[in-house]
Amino acid sequence: MRFLATKGSRGGALTEIARHAELPHPTTHRLLHQLIDEGMVTQLDNERRYALGSLAFELGLSAAQQFDIRGLCQPILQRLALEAGDTAYLVLRSGHEAVCVDLQEGPSPIRVITLQVGSRRPLGVGAGGMALLAALPATERDTVLDAIHVQLDSDWGMSREFMMSSIEEAHRKGYTLIRNRVNAGVSAMGRHFSDATGRPLASLSVAAINERMTPSRIKTMATLLARSTQEIAMALRSSNGRWTGFN
Predict the structure, then answer these.
(1) Percent of the chain at pLDDT above 90?
(2) Distance (Å, rounded) from C-alpha 191 to C-alpha 237?
(3) What is the mean pLDDT of residues 14-36?
(4) Are the beta carbons of 209 and 218 closer than 8 angstroms?
(5) Which of 91, 127, 136, 180: disulfide with 141, CB 3.0–4.6 Å?
(6) Rounded Cα–Cα distance for residues 220 and 39 (Å)
(7) Spatial CB neighbours of 145, under 8 Å, sequence gap ≥ 6
């Protein structure tokens, strides 16, 4: 189900789903059709591809009543996008992945949309995911990298050494800054925030074309991200510990 969530409306083919799940094709096919019977998965018309079904959406609506971090963060995210002038993202940690749960477009005439709501990437790929990975305690971070470093290298061209260098840079600066790493011509900055127990929960990031990420704007973005994440952290602390990490 996590894998299908990463594939969006295009869905995934049986072969790649089986490979990701590390299951034989007949077993994967049987499980997919059981999920289709329950409404959790749908088979796309005229294609041998599978995507999330309507029941997944319905369950998500129900869960949102209890875990509405998007509603808590939305006013701050909207202001960040307005003041930054560019697209701002709210990215939530989910195990070894970073999930985009909200985005707000800024007023810049050249807008960058590098993520869609619901899209997933391994921790460390984008600015928001890298901010979360860098914020993890060293032992937990190493465990995550052990699990995903092959995928990061093969799918994204990011070696473990490169990831560790990026983490060290994030620690020095207090934020992440990437250029042309995921999308050519695009720069992004990110900063994490923690839940009421102090565990890294999610991050805010801002993406723009490279030309807009000048040294002076990087300094401004760093200030905006620091203020915005601090405001969210304060709101989380006042929520009586309702929010804790989903890892």
Answers:
(1) 55
(2) 18
(3) 89
(4) no
(5) 136
(6) 47
(7) 124, 133, 160, 163
Per-residue tokens: 6: 């990463």
Helices 138-156, 127-135: axis angle to 10 degrees equals: 150
**Beta carbons within 10 angstroms of residue 195's beta carbon:** 21
Beta bridge partners of 89: 103, 205
- Which token pair is 228? 């915005």
The residue behind tokens 């992945």 is 97
The reported pLDDT for the residue numbered 247 is 47
Per-residue pLDDT of 105-122, as tens digits, reads 999 888 788 788 888 899
CA distance 218 to 191: 13
What is the CATH code of the structural domain delimited by 2-62? 1.10.10.10
Q: What is the mean pLDDT of residues 224-239?
A: 89
Length of the chain: 247
- Taking the C-alpha atoms of residue 124 and residue 135, their distance in angstroms, rounded to an integer, is 11
67-237 CATH pick, 2.60.120.20, 3.30.450.40, 3.10.690.10, 1.10.10.10: 3.30.450.40
Instruction: Spell out the alpha helix ranges (H) of the chain.
Output: 2-7, 14-21, 25-38, 54-64, 69-84, 127-135, 138-156, 160-173, 215-237
